[in-house]
Amino acid sequence: MPKDGSTNGPAPKEGAHSGSIEHCPDEMTIAAYLDERMGARELTRMELHLSRCVKCAKSVQELREILAQVHSGQEDPDHVSEIAQRAKKLVGG
């Protein structure tokens, strides 16, 4: 998947979880995906899952947006706290 979060395949289907990853990935797997720390096979499986699961695709896109805000260099403690709270909600914390 390109770094901008777009996909080249069909739009994800609501609730669809078929394919190589039968269940939604855990937080550590999503973090590895976002940090580009996956091997080719694992990356392919993750991207297939994201192409079929609306919930995970939305979460990954939102987390990409949060990471972009963090990397934008804004040091305002209130802003950082807001970003942290949004991220925690996305990963079920």
Report on this model:
With about 90 residues, the protein is mainly alpha-helical. The protein has four helices and no strands. It has helices at about 25-35, 40-50, 55-70, 75-90. Helix 2 (about 40-50) crosses helix 3 (about 55-70) and helix 3 runs antiparallel to helix 4. It starts with about 25 loop residues before the first helix and ends with a helix. Mean pLDDT is about 75; it is low at about 1-20.
| Biggest sheet descriptor | none
Strand percent estimate: under 5%
Regions with little confidence, pLDDT below 50 for 5+ residues? 1-20
Count of distinct strands: 0
Helical segment count: 4
Shape: elongated
Label the structural class: mainly alpha
Topology, pairings included?
Blueprint: H1 27-34, H2 40-52, H3 54-70, H4 77-90
Helix pairs in contact: 2-3, 3-4
Which labels suit this protein?
0% strand; 56% helix; 93 residues; 4 helices; mainly alpha
